[in-house]
Amino acid sequence: MADSNLLIQRLELDPADFPPLPLQPGFAQLVTDTLGNVATPTDGFDDVMGEAIAIVDALDTALGALALDLLSAFAEADTIDALPVSGTVIAFTASLAPSSAAVDDLGTLLGTATPPSPTGGGGGGGMTIGSATGPVLPCAARQGMGPGACSSYPCTAAGTFTNTGTQVRHISAITLVQTGTTWTAETDCTGTLSPGQTCRFTITAQAAPPAGAKAQLQFTHDGAGSPSVFCVDDGIGSSGIGGSGGGGPRFTLN
Predict the structure, then answer these.
(1) What average pLDDT does the chain have?
(2) For the domain with range 130-253, which CATH number is right: 3.60.40.10, 2.60.40.10, 3.40.50.150, 2.30.130.40?
């Protein structure tokens, strides 16, 4: 019997209160009965884990190969001597300065250059037009450029010269014949006119021509009717100006 004077009484257990060992059905069976197929090969966990391990292994292999390539690249880079490369770049950069200066100088020369002035008072990119005081020849076409024909000055008349033949023709000279300096002329005609080719010319009265003033633009060539002559004077009106549309002399040669 327990001592009634003790504050804490001793617990006495009867062995009959516990089941006999070994326990039935056993711990493994208890887990299986409780958890079913969880954490067993049948729940798919092993398959997922195997795939994850395969992925990690593949990454490890790839990174290992990349590391070898990087080490090889860095090793090659270490063999490059930086001094010759640096010297080459510096020398190339220094060589650009004289080239740049030469280009700048050429640009300056081109910007200040002016085309030569023909002695005959014009050029226009073609032949040099000569100047003379005679002889005066019959006119193939005439244009009045006096105050009654020009509203202001300078006043310009323009014309064309066309090879209508089947052979190449050559212009040997273009001459502005006048007394004084009232008129100037320009042309893009060169020394050769191929069949069907046309060149252009202009003659300009820089000021109102004095009374009785006349001038001629003479084209000497190897075609029939050479030289072809275009005349201007202090009058009004025009004559011998042919070609469709009018508007200026249209010489032809063949």
Answers:
(1) 77
(2) 2.60.40.10
